[in-house]
Amino acid sequence: MITLNINGKDVQLDAPEDMPILWALRDVVHLTGTKFGCGMAQCGACTVHLDGQAIRSCVTPVTAAVGKKITTIEHMQNDKVGQVVQAAWSAVDVVQCGYCQSGQIMAATALLTSNKKPTDDDIDAAMSGNICRCGTYPRIRAAIHEAANKLA
Amino acid sequence: MNSPLNISRRTFIKATALAVGGLVIAFSIPNAKRFLLPGIPEANAAEEGNKLPTPNAFLRIDTDNTITVMLAHSEMGQSIWTTLPMLIAEELDVDLSKVKVMHAPAAPEYIHTAYGIQITGGSSTTWSEFDRYRQAGALTRALLVNAAAKKLGVTAESIKTENGFAISGDKKISYGDLAEAAAKLETPKAVTLKQPKDWKIIGKATKRLDGPEKINGTAIFGQDIHFEGLMTAMVARSPVFGGSVKSFDASAAKKIKGVQQVVQVPSGVAVIADNYWAAKQGREALKVEWNLGPNAGLDSKALVSEYRKMAATQGLTAAKAGDIKTASAKVTKTVEAEYVLPYLAHSPMEPLNCSVKISKDACEIWTGTQMQGTDQQAAAKILGLKPEQVTIHTLFLGGGFGRRANPAADFVSEAVQVAKAAGVPVKTVWSREDDVKGGYYRPMYLHKAKIGLDANGMPATWEHTIVGQSILLGTPFEAFMIKEGVDATSVEGVADSPYLKSVPNYQVSLHTAKTAIPVLWWRSVGHSHSALVMESLIDELAHTAKKDPLEYRRALLKDHPRHLAALNLAAEKAGWGKPLPKDVFRGIAVHESFGSFVTQVAEVSVDKGVVKVHRMVCAIDCGLSVNPDSLKAQMESSISFGLGAAMQSEITFKDGMVEQSNFHDYKVMRMADMPKVEVYIVQSTEKMGGAGEPGLPPVAPAVTNAIFAATGKRIRSLPIGNQLA
């Protein structure tokens, strides 16, 4: 048994030590908002926060999260920056198929938490690890700028 | 895609009471013929459907005022979850934001009004449902009005409807309160649809109804299905297409904690486990010896050489006019070119997956699919069930792009085989590596063209030979879409090009190559290669004739007003002919596909061989735009998808195997490479066309034409990659 803090709650789960956080979330705890896209930190669909930092949960074993706080998309409505990001996503109507958007929102929230006024270059640097096959990139950029304005 | 079946567009509409006291509106299409797989008997589908109205409905109103719209098509990003309810809400006079939306099951009632099969594809949902969904709304409103008139003792004409209420003077009754009475009334024979001038919803930029759940992580995709007892399976498949299992040793795999079973299935060996991680580790530990079969020597470079040899001879005629031989004498200049376009994977963000639960006389399937009917039949055939014993639950699709519309029902069939062999409910999942290596690709194509210009620099002769695999050969579409050996999707965009209409002598021919590589439609189908070739050739002709590429197109397209409208709007908004920043150059391309006309203008710089696309300006004429904001989103999407492919994507083969495996080597568009995008909509009352695909074809040639303007180098193969380095 391993104890993980997920969205502010300690959860005991039966997971092997090498199991990536992604699969502990999805297959053990059944929090399915965090998505599987590539399994090798190439697409960002699995992005969650570990102590506030954006990480790729598909390559991070559960042992790396012991004693730390895992935050997922399901908790963003309780996150001060996350709320603003989600509202901006809605205002710009970013989503299409939607599958990558949990990861996009987690990456954008981490960016805006550490950088209140990101430039386009900052957005490129922070968001280029998150693939969207529907090509919502222009709207993601617009939504991040919109959220930054609201946070200012 | 053309209409493979000429079925009646006339639909029977039927209103029925719900057991719980609500109203349900069902449709059936008389004399509709379905595509059936061999061995599937044709039940009298339409009539059976009429007997079973409850699930086979388009719209239901419950007594608690819940309004539910059933989608005959799948939501995969294109916003049909919003567009189809908009059509109903317009006629029904309800608040769109309060409408509940559900994917329809697989049933004859939901077959495409033009294609005769339950499918989401061909950029056809909006135009093909424009009448049916508005009728459903209007008919329901008429029933509710009649019920209100009866209840209030007034004439139906004196009642107006607003926001889910029937109103007469100062009296207001909610639709929910009228539903039960309305269900008992006779269904009107005809209804009058609103005039466009009275539309309050259609034509207005409208927010997506699936936005909130896709923003907060609660939207359920196929991958997210979970219920007690559901196992996860991964299948080890032959590394070479056409290979088979010689033997396997599951002992190490079975030692992995969480692995429950290892079973052989037709497509390989399935490892069934408690969760994905265990299944993945189990599959890695599994030892399989393969019969690689006859394709172990498959090699992309050799295949290109083979195609080149084939292109040296004339193929089967796809289009022809005049007499090239005689006309060639009058030609003053000749342009000859060869274009090669690679195999491409769809790689939707959600890897393929399908959950299957089999019981004695029924099967339930949960997946994201674009072809419910075909999947249902394929599952029924495997299990020896009737199609109606197979229930398909369609979840949100994490992207489709054509991959989830497979006439061979590949990933659904495999998942059914796995669940059948395992004897337990199983979700069969593909890794990204399985997706990239596992096939169903946009076929590789080689085009060879020789064009003769007359003294005015205009094309007088056009010889064009296309070589590539057929998507439709061996599928139920073959009978309708392959004529005299020519697959319409192999030559679309060339054989029917408007440019050829102004060329007195032309010949378009096709060699259909056969390989073991499984191929499928990929966003914009044949246009995904033909537009690059045609628009590059036209650009080259313009430069050869020393004419402006825009003016040259205008001259050739003078009798094609919708092409011209898209061309002129994009050119104007892009500032064609006006100065650009230093080292930035423009390219333009226009193409018709799926009934819509799109122009893309690219602004590109090339610095030390590195291509940077700075800005894309797009104009589309698709006739009426039901939701202009989702139309714009589809253009943005097409630009991203098309640019990623043009710049970086390719699937190649060596020693029979796919050389790419994941997003590090099957490269796609990312944020840093995405240009600024501007989309303009031609205000049009012309025939409605599609939106999901037509933006894509002109993207690549606009960029390569800009590269020519920047460097003088004509890009003749994709991806552009480091060709300029």
Tell me what you see in this structure:
The complex is a heterodimer of chains A (152) and B (725). Chain A has five helices and five strands; from the N terminus they run E-E-H-E-E-E-H-H-H-H. Chain A is of the alpha+beta class and 152 residues long. Chain A has two domains: 2-73, Beta-grasp domain (Ubiquitin-like (UB roll)), CATH 3.10.20; 76-151, [2Fe-2S]-binding domain (DNA polymerase, domain 1), CATH 1.10.150. In chain A, helix 2 (80-92) crosses helix 3, helix 2 (80-92) crosses helix 5 (137-151) and helix 3 (101-114) packs across helix 4. Chain A starts with a strand and ends with a helix. Chain B is α+β, with helices and mostly antiparallel strands and 725 residues long. Chain B folds into three domains: 12-215, Aldehyde Oxidoreductase, domain 4; 222-293 and 352-429, Aldehyde oxidase/xanthine dehydrogenase, molybdopterin binding domain (Aldehyde Oxidoreductase, domain 4), CATH 3.30.365; 300-343 and 441-711, Aldehyde oxidase/xanthine dehydrogenase, molybdopterin binding domain (Aldehyde Oxidoreductase, domain 4). Chain B contains 20 helices and 30 strands. A seven-stranded mixed sheet of chain B has the order 11-12-9-19-16-17-18. Chain B has a five-stranded mixed sheet with strand order 1-2-3-4-5, sandwiched between helices. In chain B, helix 3 (125-152) crosses helix 4 and helix 10 packs parallel to helix 11. Mean pLDDT of chain B is 92; it is low at 1-11, 29-34 and 42-56. Chains A and B meet through helix 1, helix 2, helix 3, helix 4 and helix 5 of A and helix 5, helix 7 and helix 19 of B.
